[in-house]
Amino acid sequence: MVLLGFREIIFQRLFSDFSATFWRQVFMAKEKSRYFTFLLYPETLPEDWEIKLEIIGVPIAVSPLHDSDKSSVEGQEYKKAHYHCIYIAKNPVTADSVRNKIRKALTEESVGFVQICMNVENTYLYLTHESKDAIAKKKHIYNKADIKLIKTVM
Ligand SMILES: [Mn+2]
Ligand 1 (ion): which residues have CB within 5 A? Predict the structure, then answer.
C-alpha cells in the first residue's frame, strides 16, 4: 500500500489528472483490490440502473449528481453531469473485472474511469466535495442527503 501511495503521488506530479488515470489503469491492470471507484453518466444509464447495480450484489455508494463541477475546457462552464461511485467487492479483484461487470449490468458508455480506490474515507468525502483537497479547491459542495447506498439483495 505504501508503494502504491508513492506511485500515486508520482503520477499526480508528472501527469495531468486525465493521463494520471490513464497510466494508473495501464500499470495497475493486474493489481487487485476490494475497493473501487468509477463514474456513471446519467444520459446513457438505463432507467432501472439502481436495480441493475443492486443485482451485482455488492454495496455501492453513489454520490449526488455532480452537475455543477467547473470544466477546465474552454467555452464549457460545467463538466458533463456524472455520479461518483464507491464499489466494495467481496474478494480482491482487478479493475478490469469490475469494469466488465458494471458495463454488462448497465451500458458500455455509462461507465467511466474504473480504478482502485486508494483511500475510501477521502473518496467518500469527495462524493460531496467535502474532502480536504476539494475544499481547498473551493469545489461546489453537494448535499450529503443525496448520497445513495445500493444495498445488496441478499
Ligand atoms: Mn465530480
Answer: 66, 69
